[in-house]
């Protein structure tokens, strides 16, 4: 499989704080990579650096061979919308949802390309097939949903366009074990042509639901934990 994401010597942080230290990482097309590490070791910061959401960064990030990294000393988010258009989809930690909007409106927010907007109805149907509990909640306000349902909305919104690289940050956070397993299994079952990185503290949840798991400790990669996929 060709390399879809190639990260070399990526450092990033916030103000004077350096969180990532010369990270190297390669992800192949079709691969689902689990990123494990304890709280505060830099998993979220790596995902933010891939979308230029840290306050500064340096190092190379190649997406499908094109350089999207480089040195940036100020200004989180200036290139983020361009990177999303280039094919990076994000389900951020802790949902980042709008409590006053309905499930349908959230999913429509994810349809940000012209093609996705034109075909949003069938895309929403597909999300309901992936997460059946959302179907009867189509017009419910997201603020009234359970944690598990909100997580499904957040991931569903990410899936409304075909991304090359999906970044899913701690899908199990705050969820009951059974619901976490359901969400993780749905992620594993998705037919994805690009690649997916799933950050997770609970390595057991990744077992059987990722092709490869890498550890992260104190802002550095800790090598492959192992190939734990089913396929
Ligand atoms: N916006 C920010 N400003 C300053 N420091 C931050 C910011 N976000 C994270 N940090 C710090 O960066 C370090 C790494 O945090 P990060 O969120 O990347 O870790 P993580 O492995 O994803 O853990 P978590 O599971 O809590 O998200 C921590 O020391 C954290 O306090």
How would you explain this protein's 3D organization?
This protein is α/β, with parallel strands linked by helices and 231 residues long. The chain folds into two domains: 1-86 and 166-224, Rossmann fold; 88-162, no CATH class. The chain is built from eight helices and ten strands. The strands form two sheets. The protein has a six-stranded mixed β-sheet with strand order 6-7-8-3-9-10. A four-stranded antiparallel β-sheet has the order 2-1-4-5, covered by helices on one side. Strand 9 and strand 10 form a beta hairpin. The two termini are 14 Å apart. The structure holds adenosine-5'-triphosphate. Adenosine-5'-triphosphate is lined by residues 14, 17, 19, 37, 39-45, 93, 170.
Order of helices and strands: EEEHEEHEHHHHEHEHEE
Structural class: alpha/beta
User: What is the count of DSSP helices, taking H or I runs of 4+ residues?
Assistant: 8
Stretches where pLDDT falls below 50 for ≥5 residues? none
Task: Output mean pLDDT.
Answer: 90
Q: Which percent bin holds the helix content?
A: 25-40%
Find the count of extended strands (DSSP E, 2+ residues): 10
Shape: globular
What are the distinct ligands in this entry?
adenosine-5'-triphosphate
